[in-house]
User: Fold this.
Amino acid sequence: MHSLYLYQIIRHSMKNITRFMLIGLSCIFFFSCKKDEIITTPEPTGIISGKIVAQNNRTPIPNALIFVTTPNGFYSTYTDVDGNFTLTAAAGDRDLHIQTGNGDKFRTVLRVSITEDQTTILSLPVNLNQVASLAYIPGTYDKIESILRDTLGYNAQYIDPNNLMNIIGISSYDAVFINCGTMNFNTNPTTDSVLARYVSAGGSIYASDYAMDFIEGKFVLGTACGTDRYFGFIPDSLVCSRRTGTVSTVVGANVVSQELQTYLGRNAMDIIYNLGTWERIQYVNNDFWETMITDPTDGSPLFIRSNQYHQNSSTPPPAIGHQDPTQVTVCHTLPTGKKVNITISTDEAVSHFSHGDTTGSCNNPNNSGWIYFTTFHNEQNGFINQDMKRILEFMILNL
Assistant:
C-alpha cells in the first residue's frame, strides 16, 4: 500500500515537472521570437556631417530631423541652431533623410556614401525641400507669406477668402495661412463647416491675431469669456480670447515649448505688439492645446497649437493636399522610448512595421491637421524683430 501511494506521488510530481518544463520552453521560445522582432543587428558605421538650409540657400534650419534607416537599424540626430549636423550611421550607400515636422510638408532625401570608420563631410549645404502645396489668404495687418517666400524661399498660392466657403476651394492645399485682417464677414456657418472638415481630414491652418475669428468666431465688443463668439468651428470651451491687448512689448516672454527652445536656442524673448488692440488669450483647455509661449507677467498664452481637433461625420473626408502614394508617415519609437514622426517610402516602411511602428502621426489617432495661432504676427511693412521672425519660421516648417 505504501509503495503504491509513493508511486502515485512520484508520478504526479513528474507530470507537474514536465508541464512546467513545457511552459518554460514555450516562454523561452515566445520571448525569443519577440526579441528577434525588435533587435537591431550591429552594422559597420561611419560618420556624415553637413549643413541644412531653406530653399533660399542661406537660412539655416535648426532642429531638423536627420536619419538613415536600414532593415536592421535607425540612426538619427538633429541639426543645431545653425543648421549643422553630425550623424553616425550604417556604412554604405544610403538615403539620408532630412525633415521638419512630420516630414509630410518639408523633406529631402539625399543619396550619400558613408564610409566605415571615416567621416564624410558634405561639401555644400543641403536644401530642405517643400513637398506640400501651400496657400495664403491676404490680410490688412499681417503678411506671413513674405516670411515664407522671402525669408525661407518657399512657395504659397494666393487664394481669395471666398475659397473658405467650399471645401473644394482649399482641399488641394496641405496648409492654409489666414492673415490677421482677413475680412471677418467671411466668417459664417459655412466657413465653420469647411474648416472643420478640412482640419479633420488632415489639412493644417495658421491664423494670427484677429484671424481668431475663423477659429473661435467673430469678436463682439464688450463680451467676456462665457459669452460665445458668433460662429467659429472650435468650441469656446476649448479657447477664449478677447481683443484687450494694447500697444506694448512683452519683455522676456517665456518659451515653454522644449521643441521651440531647441529651434531658437533660447527660452525667453521680447514680443512686440505695435497695433492698438490684439487678441489676448484668456483661457485654453490644456488637454486640447499645447502652449508654446507665455506672458511672464500673468502666464497667459501668446502662441498655441493643436492637432487634436476631429469632427465625427458620416460624410467621407475629402482628399487633402499633395498626394504621394509612394510615401507614408510612420510613428517610430526610438530606443529611448521617445516617439517621432517620419515620412518614408512605402518600401522602407515594411521593416518599420515589423518592429512595431505604426502608420500615421504619433499621439494623433485621427491624423488631424495642425491648428496654429499666434497673438502676434508679421507686419505689412515687415516690421518684426528677428526672434519673432524665427518663431514664425518654426511655425511654417512644423505645420
Remarks:
- The longest strand covers residues 45-53.
- The chain has a mean pLDDT of 88.
- The chain is about 20% helix and 30% strand.
